[in-house]
């Protein structure tokens, strides 16, 4: 899919806009995508121009100093606002503190525009590791970045290469003191898969505070006249996680630099044949991050991850998995959450 089609699709479907930064001309594409996203989010005043500056600075740094760089532009996964994510595969930043100073630049280290990005963004997050790469998240919102309850959430949603529609979708909702999240994968690709995913979102949003088994049962009824989907529903409390899923949605619990638990859904297709849904409950250690993703993200990423990956905050973790472990022939969605 070319960049123009990608931006049009993102506008229609609410997808993540992906811009490969493989040439200087991609800097302008990233800036345009960010300005367009800010306008769709109805950010006021100079904020669309600020969004363009953020994307331009991040893309420019990728062109000058990084390998395999990508910029992702999208609405926030909750509330009002937008975010720009920049990911690369190295070489990483040698002196991060100096690189964050306004105007600092040195050949061989990412840094010329990072100080300005940190100053302009409503919220700024960066992690880097020599030999591994750098991840940046710059968020813009009118009055602080909103959160669902006390949870930080990151998500990336991408269509299969060459597709105009995405059969994956995600949603989050604050439900009392808990966070409830859905990831759904419409069967196949294209417009019919996307319609199944939209039907699942509509059903979920009617009452996200229901028991997870009831949410799955309601999704099953809502998708009976679609091609069906896989769906996973996760509820996070301060001390435990509940998971209920049907099909190929996977969940992983990360803490202490590694993977504590892996969860998969029960066999079946939501809307067609669903066994009696079951909920699994797991104890959460402090600082645990939970990842929920479709099979457009490779399942083996969590088998032997580097210590760098599990320690990333949710927005950067979602971007890292989409960038490094995506199956391009399939729609891909990854959602990560952690207590803020």
Mean pLDDT: 91
What is the fold-level CATH name, i.e. the topology of the largest domain?
Answer: Phosphatase 2c, domain 1
Query: Strand order across the biggest sheet?
Result: 1-2-3-5-4
- Our Rg estimate from Cα atoms comes to 19 Å
**What's the CATH superfamily of the largest domain, by name?**
PPM-type phosphatase domain
Helix content: 25-40%
Number of helices: 8
Poorly predicted regions are: 4-12, 106-111
The fraction of residues assigned to DSSP E strands is 25-35%
* Helix-and-strand structural type: alpha+beta
Summed up, the domain count is 2
User: What's the story with the biggest beta sheet?
Assistant: 5 strands, antiparallel
| Name of the top-level CATH class of the largest domain | Alpha Beta
* SSE series: HEHHEEHHEEEEEHHEEEEEEHE
Rough outline: globular
CATH architectural grouping of the largest domain: 4-Layer Sandwich
From the N-terminal CA to the C-terminal CA, the straight-line distance is 36 Å
- The counted number of beta strands is 15
Organism: Streptomyces carminius
Domain PPM-type phosphatase: 151-339
InterPro entries: HATPase_C_sf, HATPase_dom, PPM-type-like_dom_sf, PPM-type_phosphatase-like_dom, Ptase_RsbX
Protein name: PPM-type phosphatase domain-containing protein
Verbal overview:
The protein has 340 residues and is an alpha+beta fold. It folds into two domains: 3-140, Histidine kinase-like ATPase, C-terminal domain (Heat Shock Protein 90); 151-339, PPM-type phosphatase domain (Phosphatase 2c, domain 1), CATH 3.60.40. 28% of the residues lie in helices and 30% in strands. It has eight helices and 15 strands. A hairpin with a 3-residue loop joins strand 9 and strand 10. Helix 2 runs antiparallel to helix 3 (47-65) and helix 6 (190-206) packs across helix 7. The protein is globular and about 55 Å long. The model is unreliable at 4-12 and 106-111 (pLDDT under 50). Residues 151-339 form the PPM-type phosphatase domain.
């Amino acid at each position: 899919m070319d960049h123009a089609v990608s931006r049009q699709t993102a506008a229609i479907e609410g997808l993540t806009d992906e811009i490969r930064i493989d040439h200087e001309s991609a800097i302008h594409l990233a800036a345009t995508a960010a300005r367009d996203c800010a306008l769709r989010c109805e950010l006021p005043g100079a904020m669309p121009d600020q969004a363009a500056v953020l994307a331009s600075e991040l893309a420019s740094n990728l062109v000058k100093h990084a390998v395999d760089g990508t910029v992702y532009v999208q609405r926030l996964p909750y509330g009002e606002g937008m975010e720009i994510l920049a990911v690369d595969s190295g070489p990483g930043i040698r002196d991060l503190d100096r690189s964050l100073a306004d105007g600092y630049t040195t050949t061989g280290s990412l840094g010329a525009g990072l100080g300005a990005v940190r100053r302009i963004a409503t919220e700024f997050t960066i992690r880097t590791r020599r030999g591994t790469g750098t991840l940046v998240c710059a968020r813009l919102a009118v009055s602080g970045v909103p959160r669902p309850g006390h949870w930080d959430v990151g998500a990336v949603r991408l269509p299969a290469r060459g597709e105009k529609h995405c059969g994956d979708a995600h949603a989050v909702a604050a439900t009392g003191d808990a966070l409830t999240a859905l990831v759904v994968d419409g069967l196949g690709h294209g417009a019919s898969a996307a319609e199944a995913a939209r039907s699942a979102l509509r059903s979920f949003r009617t009452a996200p505070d229901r028991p997870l088994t009831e949410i799955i049962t309601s999704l099953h009824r809502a998708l009976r006249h679609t091609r069906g989907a896989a769906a996973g529903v996760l509820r996070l409390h301060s001390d435990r996680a509940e998971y209920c899923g049907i099909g190929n949605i996977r969940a992983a619990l990360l803490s202490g630099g590694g993977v504590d638990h892996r969860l998969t859904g029960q066999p079946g297709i939501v809307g067609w044949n669903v066994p009696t849904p079951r909920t699994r409950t797991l104890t959460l250690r402090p600082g645990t991050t939970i990842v929920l993703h479709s099979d457009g993200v490779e399942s083996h990423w969590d088998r032997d991850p580097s210590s760098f990956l599990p320690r990333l905050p949710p927005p950067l973790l979602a971007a890292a998995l989409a960038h490094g472990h995506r199956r391009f022939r399939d729609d891909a969605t990854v959602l990560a959450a952690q207590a803020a």
